[in-house]
Amino acid sequence: MLLNEFYDYYYENTGFTTIRSTARALVFDEQGRMGMMHIVGDDIFGARDHYETPGGGIEAGEDAETAIHREVLEEVGFACRIDSYLGSVINRYNLLEVITVHHFFVCTITKKEATAWTASEQEWFQGVVWKTPQEWVDILAKPRPMVNELVHQRERFILSYFLNQ
């Protein structure tokens, strides 16, 4: 089910060449805190300093459920249980010429493993930050520049959707 679509009003639209599907998780620990990845760095978008739900691309031969288990394990370092599927959200990233369809799940961590960050993730990821959902609402409400706001608007929406179900 498509829940929302977001448009990129920060960067010039030169058209889109790719549609990408991802699996993303609102992932919770045993205390009910939600984990988000803290991303810091510079790229074609400029300075990044934002939080986003763990997740990433659905690989060839994977379904979204398989991808979310893999992504939570790789990024958060835990096996997880899928509690529910929330729906999908579309983002457009003009600079990348990519339309991304994010499939959102609610998950609970189950067993500590180890992260498996790629080289670029090691450069960008500052780690997993665990906060209550209300603390995340407050953090994500603070204005951020450019690409950071593109990411936070998606995260604000999905967290609000989850909390208001």
Describe it for me?
The protein has 165 residues and is an alpha+beta fold. The protein has one domain (2-163): Nucleoside Triphosphate Pyrophosphohydrolase. It is 27% helix and 45% strand. It contains 4 helices and 8 strands; from the N terminus they run βββββαββαβαα. The protein has helices spanning 64-76, 119-124, 133-141, 147-163; strands spanning 2-6, 18-28, 34-43, 46-52, 55-57, 78-93, 98-112, 125-131. Strands 1, 2, 3, 4, 5, 6, 7 and 8 form an 8-stranded mixed beta sheet that branches. A hairpin with a 4-residue loop joins β6 (78-93) and β7. α3 packs antiparallel against α4 (147-163). The chain is globular. The chain starts with a strand and ends with a helix.
Write a compact overview of the structure shown:
The protein has 165 residues and is α+β, with helices and mostly antiparallel strands.
> What order do the SSEs take from the amino end to the carboxyl end, as H and E?
EEEEEHEEHEHH
> What global shape is seen?
globular
Rg, nearest Å? 15 Å
CATH architecture: Alpha-Beta Complex
Overall mean pLDDT stands at 96
Q: What is the CATH superfamily? A: Nucleoside Triphosphate Pyrophosphohydrolase
Low-confidence stretches: none
How much helix is in the residues?
25-40%
User: Please, how many helices?
Assistant: 4
Secondary structure: number of strands = 8
Distance between the termini: 14 Å
Based on secondary structure, the structural category is alpha+beta
Number of domains: 1
Q: Give a short account of the largest sheet.
A: 8 strands, mixed
CATH class: Alpha Beta
* Portion in beta strands: 35-45%
